Amino acid sequence: MPTRSLPERSEITIVGGGIVGVTIAHELAKRGEDVTVIEKRFIGSGSTFRCGTGIRQQFNDEANVRTMKRSVELWRKYSEEYGFSFEQTGYLFLLYDDDEVEEFKRNIAIQNRFGVPTRLITSEEAKEIVPLIDISEVIAASWNPTDGKADPFYATAAFALNAERFGAKLVEYTEVKDFIVENGKIKGLKTNWGVIRTGTVINATNAWAKLINAMAGIGVKIPIEPYKHQAVITQPIKRGSIKPMVISFKYGHAYLTQTAHGGIVGGVGYELGPTYDLSPTYEFMREVSYYFTKIVPALRELLILRTWAGYYAKTPDSNPTIGKIEELDDYYIAAGFSGHGFMMAPAVAEMMAELVTKGRTDLPVNWYDPYRFERGELRGQALQMG
Amino acid sequence: MRTLDLTEKDPSKRITIYFEGEEYEAYEGEKFPVAMLANGVYWLTISTEGRHRGAFTFGPVPLTVNGVKNINGRKLRVRDGMRIKRQSYDEFQEQVNVDRDKPVLRYVVDVAVIGAGPAGLGAVEEIGGKLTVALIEERGWLGGDMWLKGVEQEDFGDPRGAIEKLTNFPENVRVFLSTAALGVFDRGEYLLVPAVRKDQLIEVMAKRIVIATGAVDSIMLFENNDYPGVFRRSDALEVINVWGVAPGRRVAVVGAFPEEVLPELERWGIEYVVVPNPRRVEGVGRVERLIDGNGNVYEVDAVIMADGRIPDINPVTQAGGKLRFKRGYYTPVLDDRHRIREGIYVAGSAVSVKPHHANYLEGKLVGANVLKEFGFEAEPCTYRERLREYEPVGRQIPRFPLDEFRGEDVQICGCGVTLKKVDDVVKSGITDLQIIKRLTHLAMGFCQGRFCLFNGALLASQRNGTPMGELDMPVARPPIKNVRMKVPAGRD
User: Fold this and answer.
1) Three-state DSSP class for residue A333
2) Which of A121, A127, A193, A296 is 20 to 30 A from A185, alpha carbon to alpha carbon?
3) pLDDT of A2 above 80
4) Nearest CB to A153: which of B89, B439, B489?
5) pTM to 2 decimals?
6) Between the CA atoms of A293, A296, A298 and A302, what dihedral angle is there, to the nearest 10 degrees?
């Protein structure tokens, strides 16, 4: 069980106890490493517990498709082993004009090349998958039945409890204040509860990554900024009413689906920031209601239970930064997920565990190279909604 | 008269309604649960977990009315010939009418007062005539909890008479009844209070806000505490004093504050028994008997929880207020002018539980503070002095006999959160209230924790030894009252 007592030393220390930090700790502990997670509030409290629950392989470039394909394999494996809910109920992108259809045909070709079985379907087929949607303006849909969703609370708790089972330590309500560095080597971290001696630090703080990078004193330019995105949930309704994640770029860059608990959850592309403020706004409540009821008219009569906000920790190309920072021995970063941290976490954890223990990985980590901004080699914008 | 009618009703309003195909006598405009209670029918709905429920404890009461699903049974007013059916919690209307959006009603005022109980009315009395006021009241009446009282109140005397005196508003006070505020949002020099009345969206822009949203009744933990026939104190008082219907023929009053109910029962000659330590309620589909911690059995047909009240912290935390734990409950942290932050004042039992007249004085105090901000002469110190004569009510922190309960029968929340569900999470190694909340869905349903979060906090505290004041308490998110999505969906 997560504690509030800081160990004196740990070979590897992960800063940030969201899904990324916790799954990295889980993979490292499983490989026999001595690892501690330091979380300034409670596990999942940053962006993980605020996320939209979706897990998709329908990306628009090779690296993200490959990473997400591996992630989905791991989501399936661990959900079965640890008994939390991961449902492969698919992602359904509703398409409204020819340009959109052409763009998705290109994406589908990339996805198919790496074994992701996405296909273009008719609006009538889309209606069969989700009878509640309004297809009067829909001309086609992009459908991958192997995409899915998981419960962020149960999933994160399961990874946390099993990381501990393998010997990882999870320390909550503890905030990193500074790095102790001697001759370019990390010697420890100062926290509000004292010092932890450590030789390797992994920055998994996502929205706060730039603050930890500044403490580490690294000179590399890694632009990650926190943007406020919001989500809504309605009263629970009959299970199976909206099985897949339904996406509509036309109507507000919206995503929506039904949680295992029965509520309809989702968000729209209403972005504020950069900011650390997380107070939900009235404008969002109006925007999301307008767009959601266009996509699924039956939502009109459902009660909104609440709205909330979380961060998209965004990089300029909406791809995360994952890798080793050479200027400081040994410092790694896995942050800037731009709204995709929850879905990517299991693959990122594997990637990072291999990098830390073997210095290499077969997963396409170069795509997420933290030095790409300094070199001015931005990636294509990762497909993003919400 | 119907089985449980206490008063004669207007015969010209007598109508017939049909519930599950059976014919019942009712009165035009009566609340549906009251009409059914008067006929001796307590069981109105079935929870997702298959539990029989009435409308007077917790959990939603969705009904199918004249073929339309998912109508809120708590608020439903009956009309002649209405055909009403039970439905499960998760049924909903799949085919909906997309009617034209109503334009938003917008108002700009000096002060928005949320809550028209004695505190809100005190604030309005102080500032009315000098400043423009929007008084927003969720319920269909003015006077708040005092309107439910039938007996004389300390320093106020007759409650109805006192309310009448306080509601002779000057012209610049606009009253919004049956209107639920959805939250408080910053708008530069103004604060925005969106609100909803039926399906009408209302936006009130105000320079200052007074939160006078009152307290909620504590839900007691015992087995089958959600059975049809179990009443919250406020619901029992409402059916008696507003609707003239008895909660039952013989009722048990449970909890640490029976004196808040007994005089009202005595006034109507309702037979009662006081049971301080309820353990279990039993019966077939409704309350038939109550068993206490010593094994005594009481044959009753209703149970009224009178276990004290606690401030409703949701409007305060949504508006950005911080909390502290004092006198046995969470209370907003206020500055010396009774504000949670610049522009937002709190008064009444939203601050601390005390007699109606003390809440009224606190409303006057806050009103005087507001007046001073607008440059008027006012003397808050005189109200502050008088307020000192009232010591707020303290509540003992209860210790539940957790290990003696049948955990699956003790409901912490109407949304299927049982004592067992919470305990299972605690036993898995998780003791943080924030994570317990997310794994059990405590405080994540219809009431957003208004009725269940406090008991969840007590449980987490009792199980892991963390003092109540040190728990990481979740804050309420907008909308602080449920709203149908079509209401904010409108575009104008």
Assistant:
1) strand
2) A193
3) no
4) B439
5) 0.96
6) -60
What stretch(es) of chain B map to CATH 1.10.10.1100? 399-480
For chain B, the average pLDDT equals 95
A315 in Cβ contact with A322 (< 8 Å)? no
8 Å CB contact between B239 and B34: yes
- Rg, chain A, Cα only: 20
Which residues are within 8 A (CB) of A265 and not within 5 positions of it... i.e. 6 or more apart? A52, A53, A231, A232, A233, A234, A256, A257, A258, A259
Tokens of A56: 């998709």
Decide if A275 touches B, using CB distance below 8 A.
Answer: no
Instruction: Choose the CATH number for B11-86 among 3.40.350.10, 3.40.50.410, 3.10.20.440, 3.40.630.30.
Output: 3.10.20.440
Look up residue A286 and give its amino acid: R
A307 contacts in chain B (CB < 8 Å): 477-479
CATH code assigned to B399-480: 1.10.10.1100
ipTM surpasses cut 0.85: yes
B428/A contact by beta carbon, under 8 A: yes
Give the burial string for A44-72 (b: 16+ CB within 10 Å, else e).
Answer: bbbbbbbbbbbbbbbbbbebbbbbbbbbb
Mean pLDDT within A82-90 = 96
Residue with tokens 């470039």: A61
Summarize the confidence of residues B427-448 as an average pLDDT: 88
Q: How many CB pairs under 8 A join A and B?
A: 126
Strand ordering across the sheet containing A148-150: A54-55, A148-150, A86-87
Quickly state the pLDDT bin for B207 (edges 50, 70, 90): very high
Are A307 and B477 within 8 A, CB to CB?
yes
Burial class (CB in 10 A: 0-12, 13-18, 19+), B299: exposed
* B431 part of contact set with chain A, CB < 8 Å: yes
Query: Binning pLDDT at 50, 70 and 90, where does residue A1 land?
Result: low
Q: pLDDT digits over B98-109, tens only? A: 877 789 999 999
